[in-house]
Amino acid sequence: MVHEELKLQLAQFPGIAAIGVAHSGVIDSRAGTVLFWPMVEGWNDAPLRQIIEEAHGLPTFLEECVNAMAVAEQRLGHWKGVRNLLLVNVGWGIGSALFLDGHLYGGRDGMAGEFEHTTIEENGSLCTCGNRGCLERYSSASAIVGRARAELQQGVGSSLLHEVGENLDRLSVEAISAAKSYDRLSERVLSEVAVHLGTAMASTVNFLNPEKIVLGGKVPEVAGELFLTALLQSLRQRALPHAMKEMTVVISQIGEEAAALGMVFIAGEHVLRARCREIKGESRLGGGRLDPSRQRAESGSHLLCFRSLHYLQVPLSPGARKGDCSRLP
Ligand SMILES: [Zn+2]
């Protein structure tokens, strides 16, 4: 299905120089591989970059979704230019990314920032990573829905039952958030989830001393102020006061296209680097692997970047178009 959509996009716009893909899970961006993605069986160790390059004949760059979001936030958000930033994306799962001293930090194997696997309960429920009591089991949208459903099944009174027409399969984080101002169960579940997140965040704040924390994803977006207030209360209660003094926690303003937008910067910088290496005679765009389409890639003026259903076709920055190597970050 992705191939079909890509084919369609590329046919509509012939001037594409490279493809940027933001993908969730654990990604080795250097190798272009999806290392671990529990959402789809058999997708571990998948050579996604190679698959797309072979199918579409264009240099492809792969990055973890939440890292791409952090790049968009750091370049475009109203905290633009912040050097030490933690982005926590709370959706159906949780993801996070770190900017340390102005650079996206991946650690030795690109595994840094796996905040969602912070243990918050030693003997808690089993996580997809094999550990018990990981934050993701307690603070994601799936945890919120699961918790509300379990309480409703136990007979806890709530107007949510009326909202979903007694069909618990229709429970969603949107429905729970919409009921938070008048339904005690919804309000309590969302607050408790935010407290767990604040607890895990306090250890990270003490350890890394970030300037800003950006909350992205569906949960902060729909649960809004209630979620942020409970999280901040929990965070202030636990983190060192000096680490909290100048630090702020904000909800992302960029929205669902953040990952695709971040890929525009990431892929654009890769293209510029490749063109600069080419000018120096070191190597060619696509590392010499893409003979039939090399000319198209080298003369292309646009990028095609996507995450899930969000596709962006954007012009390369003037620096990348002209191979202006002084613009390399
Ligand atoms: Zn885990």
Detailed description of the structure:
With 329 residues, this protein is α/β, with parallel strands linked by helices. The protein folds into two domains: 137 residues, Nucleotidyltransferase, domain 5 (2-Layer Sandwich), CATH 3.30.420; 171 residues, 2-Layer Sandwich (Nucleotidyltransferase, domain 5), CATH 3.30.420.40. The protein is 43% helix and 17% strand. The strands form three sheets. A five-stranded mixed β-sheet has the order 7-6-5-8-9, sandwiched between helices. Strands 4-1-10-11 form a four-stranded mixed β-sheet, with helices on both faces. Strands 2-3 form a two-stranded antiparallel sheet. β10 and β11 form a beta hairpin. α3 packs across α11, α5 packs antiparallel against α8 and α8 crosses α9. The longest helix is centred in the middle third of the chain and has 25 residues. It is globular, with a radius of gyration of 21 Å. The two termini are 35 Å apart. The model has no long low-confidence stretch (mean pLDDT 87). Zinc ion binds next to loops.
In short:
The protein has 329 residues and is an alpha/beta fold.
What is this structure's SSE topology?
Layout: H1 2-12, E1 16-23, E2 26-28, E3 33-36, H2 48-56, E4 60-64, H3 65-76, E5 85-90, E6 94-100, E7 103-104, H4 136-139, H5 141-153, H6 160-163, H7 173-178, H8 184-208, E8 212-216, H9 218-238, H10 241-244, E9 248-251, H11 258-279, H12 294-299, E10 302-307, E11 310-315, H13 318-322
Helix pairs in contact: 3-11, 5-8, 8-9
The structure holds zinc ion.
Zinc ion binds near residues 127 and 131.
